[in-house]
Amino acid sequence: MIAVLAAGVDEVLDVATQCASDDDRVAASERRTEELRRRTLAGRAALRLVAAWGRGVPLERASELEISRRCPDCTRAHGQPRSADLALSSSTSAGRVLVAIADPADAIGVDIETVPGQLWPGFDSYTLHPDEALGMPAGSASDGIAARIGTWTAKEAALKVSGRGLRTDPSSLRVDEHPDPEHDGWHRVHGAPLPRSAGSAGSGGSTPLPVSVRMLAVRGSARAAIAANRPQDVRLWTMPELLTELGCLPDTGYDEGELSHLT
């Protein structure tokens, strides 16, 4: 099973800042703007919060979990999160955070994007496969923008599965329009690089399964996706649900009604 937390930056910083490590705080402090500093700290704290749940570690020890972010290109600590005990992925956009954990034999990727009022010039040629472009609504319409951001989100998540990210041209990928009939809600992503892990093999033999992606229902004007080397069950948490599961919601003074700002 993949466990996913979708939360707001403010709510993570309100109740889970203590989960961040010293390295996380340093990384956040080096970002250029206050918004980016807050997003970085929230994303890292949220990932440790879910990882602590997955490992059965007390929250007061979440900051001690070994999570590496070493970039394979420059060795700086800004790459994909990695752990020996869990598969990890994280994403932030505007005031939102999306993080996920899974079995260490799996490879996963998440992405969340706020739907903008307009797209940048050249979006379609950079993002869409020719087959995808044919079926898209007009790019200037609100539903056309939302559909394109949904496709972009699915591809970003899929490209994180291999760890290559946007080193691969997004327009070379094609997301199946219809779900896989054998895996409800999951769409195959053709052309996505496969992870090197043994977990990418099919259950019936050694033939690797294609990367698959599943869109997630999140509140507000955002699109979110989880991708994996094999379709599986997904548990999508909100912050109050996860805190309740951890048995710490009553101590936070947190009111679920306060989530109304996530629009």
Task: Explain the overall architecture.
Strand 7 and strand 8 form a beta hairpin. The protein folds into 2 domains: 1-103 and 232-253, 4'-phosphopantetheinyl transferase domain (Ribosomal Protein L22, Chain A, Alpha-Beta Complex); 107-231, 4'-phosphopantetheinyl transferase domain (Ribosomal Protein L22, Chain A), CATH 3.90.470. By secondary structure, the protein is of the alpha+beta class. It is globular. The strands form 2 sheets. It has a 5-stranded antiparallel sheet with strand order 4-8-7-6-5, covered by helices on one side. The chain has a 4-stranded mixed sheet with strand order 2-3-1-9. The chain contains 7 helices and 9 strands, in the order βαααβββαααβββββα. Helix 1 crosses helix 3 (34-55) and helix 2 packs antiparallel against helix 3 (34-55). The protein has helices at residues 9-15, 22-29, 34-55, 123-127, 130-134, 142-161, 239-245; strands at residues 2-8, 87-93, 96-102, 108-114, 174-175, 187-190, 212-216, 222-228, 234-237. The model is unreliable at 198-206 and 250-263 (pLDDT under 50). The longest helix has 22 residues, at 34-55.
**What is the structural class?**
alpha+beta
Physical arrangement of strands within the biggest beta sheet = 4-8-7-6-5
Q: In terms of quaternary structure, what is this? A: single chain
How many domains, in number, for the residues? 2
Overall mean pLDDT stands at 88
Relevant CATH superfamily of the largest domain: 4'-phosphopantetheinyl transferase domain
Q: Could you give the distance between the termini?
A: 28 Å
Share of β-strand residues? 15-25%
